[in-house]
Specification:
With about 425 residues, the chain is mostly helical. It folds into two domains: about 130 residues, no CATH class; about 280 residues, no CATH class. Helices cover about 80% and strands about 0% of the residues. It has 15 helices and no strands.
Amino acid sequence: MASELSNFSVALGIGLLIGLERERSKGEGPARGPAGIRTFALASLLGALAMHLGGFVLLAVALASGALLTGLSYARTRQTDPGLTTETGLLIVPLLGALAMSEPMLAAGLAVVVAVVFAAKAPLHGLVKGALSDAEVRDGLVFAIATLVVWPLLPDRPIGPYSVVNPHRVWLVVLLVLAIGAVGHAALRILGGRSALPLVGLTAGFVSSTAAIGSMAERAAREPANLHAAISGAALSTVATFVQMAILLASVSPETLLRLGPMLAAGGLVAALYALAFALRSSTSDTTVEAVSGRAFSWTAALGIAALLAAVSLATAALQARLGSAGLIAGAAVAGFVDAHAAGVSVASLVASSALAPAESIVPILAVMTTNAFTKIAVAFGIGSRAFARGVAPAIVLSMAAAWAAAWAVAWLWPPG
């Protein structure tokens, strides 16, 4: 009995919550809206009672009756208010009340979503009609098709020569580049180019530093005024690579992180200082960054990066086929062209299983990160302008040089054994 009373209370709360918002927006006088707090509360209780007393059959009858009354109400008010928002809410609320009888938490959560959608009329209309351009809306629709239609249909298995190119994962790279570009575009709208791109580059680097650099390259090519900010964002994505490697090593083999810690810290610090220098150059530049408009991302850049990574995968497989098991360093370095973190974690796993000494993991993991750095530089030169590539390449090279220098210093101060 206590459970049923609780469920009815949730149903009543759902109607009151949504009805509260409708009551505030329905207006006053003869032209006021057709439903307010009492109507929505009763509609929710109607759905709950119908489900409790007669199950789905009685609920269907109640919904049909409610739909009829809602239709009659709309016929009376459509000349002054042609919208169907309130009427749609009157059809949803009885269903939420019925759902509260079996899944009260789910029903309450959905009710909050409905109330938020009702209350967000002004900002949503402003976003769709004012903030978004036609090109951005088309980009959003195309991205939705690429994500929800194309991606699930692609085979999730290796195909082609050496069976290394996975279309499902290659398309994921395309989606990542597009998503990073869209996030950067939105951040530019909100924060402005000088502060948005470095932040976007850092956060996107934890997803894919290579994709982040490609997206920054495309952005700098389209908006030369944001060149320095894009270079800063690309350098910060490299910082994310060092940080993420440290986190993964800590989870797999703390002993490996203890040995690699100075190298990762040195490389990340150099990349961060380089990014800071370009961020300051961007903030003190006399160039005025114009309001961002137009396309949210570039399909050409996204497809180009995916094609480049697929080509690198094929080249990697060909080298591995020729080298065989020539050695851990060579195998790890070749794998690093495609994914630094996966190859680095595989080396750390050998340390965790006592198949490799912690000191012996330094060179293979740094080799992984070095070859991955070559991939990033190739993306910068292949996708971006010369100015962008010349700005980004030193950040990658200097950070890896600092990591190798730290390795030499550690080997001298802390020899193996």
